[in-house]
Amino acid sequence: MLRAGGTRFSREAAQRPILIFEEVYKAYGHGAPVLRGTTLTIERGEFVFVTGPSGSGKSTLLRLLYRAETVDDGRILFLGRDVARLRGNAIPFLRRNIGIVFQDFKLVSSWSAFENVAVVLEVLGLPQRLIRARVGEALERVGLAGRSDDRSSVLSGGEQQRVAIARAIVGEPALILADEPTGNLDPQLAIDILGLFEEIHDSGTTVLFATHDRTLLEVRPRRVVILDDGKAIDIPQGIAGDEYDNRLPL
Asked: Is the pLDDT of residue 247 over 80?
C-alpha cells in the first residue's frame, strides 16, 4: 500500500476510476453555487478536456481536487479516497500524486529553469544525484535540455510554460491538471503546448485539461466535459453536433 501519515491508498483503489466527482456543490460566500450537483468520472489513463465559458467553474473544479478549496457538499474521490476528508498530514501526499500546470506559470522568476523544477523533488528529500538526473530528463522531455541554467525571467512565455510542465511531471504523478495552460500563449504556441500534454498522456498519465479555447477542442478531438449551469455535461466522443454548440466557448 501507499501510505501518507495515517492515510492509505490501497492497491485495490488503483483499479478503480482515478477520479470521481459525486454530486459536488461549491459556492463562494452567499452567491449562487458555481458547481451544483456536479457528477463526473475519469478513468485511469484518460485525456479529458473540461470546457465552458469564463465563470463556469473550470478552475474551481480543479482547485477542489487538490484541496486549494473544499466542497460544500458531495464527494471527490481520488485514488479511492475522499479528498475533502483527508487529514492535513495527507494533503502533501495527495499533491505529490497530482501535477498542476497554471495559466500564469507560477515560476520563481529569479530561479533557473532547473531550480524551478528541482524544488518538487527537494521537498521530498531526494538525493542530489537523483534530482539532477530526473530534472534533466524532465527538461529534455519538454524541449529545454539546453536552458536549465537560464533564469525563468529571461525565458519566453512558451518556454516558461514548458518549465511549468516539467515541474508538473518530474515527480511522476498519477494525474496532471492543466488550468488554462495556453491562455497566455499565441495560437500556434498553444497547439505546441497541447502536443506536450498529449505526449505526457501517451506515456500513461491521466490528463485533465481545462480550457476555454475552442480551437484546441477542434484540433485535437478528445472526450469533452462541458460545465454548464454548475453541471457537467459529458461528450464521450468529443464535440458531437449542434445541440452542444451553444454551450461551448466561442
From this structure: no
